[in-house]
Write a structure and sequence with these properties.
Layout lengths: L1 E3 L5 E3 L7 E8 L5 E6 L4 E6 L4 E5 L4 H14 L7 E3 L7 E9 L2 E8 L15 H13 L20 E4 L12
Parallel strand pairs: 7-9
Antiparallel strand pairs: 1-2, 3-4, 3-8, 4-5, 5-6, 6-10, 8-9
Amino acid sequence: MRKQTPLGRSTIVCAPDELFLKFSHCAIFGGGPCIEWNGKNSELRWRDAYDNTWHLLPPPSDIQWKAFWLLIDQSSVRNWEMAYSNPYIMDGIGWGFRLSAPRLQIETSGSNAYPGSDGPGSLPGSPFDILSTAIGIPVGCDPHELKVPPLSGHNPGMPQDVEVDSDDNEEGPLT
């Protein structure tokens, strides 16, 4: 459902149980976060790109979802190209974003290239930086600051570990 804000901008509003999203931003040799929200089972989880252990995160609040949608709109991700690439760099950083909601399907990815940047990195305040910030809202922190919890047992409020296959979701793997 699309609603007009007082500034004339459209904000996409979707119930969390109708949403699937997946975001990854990974260095070829250094790993990085893969984050997934599956609204069908209200599960937010993350894993490092080079590890098949998913870590559960607390479900986002309504205010976190509202802020997420505002930043998604601000990033203009709906208008991005399907793929961004830098032909001069063959290793480095890869990223992907997929969002599936009623009447909205977004899939975009990049290899050493980002929307709003002519160089191999994302600039502060760029559309990709805004998207990364949007992902951090339901996660509760900058996605790049996610750390694997200690093995000494589960602490309340800390992510739980779930061993799963990397392509176990209904939406398929993110490329």
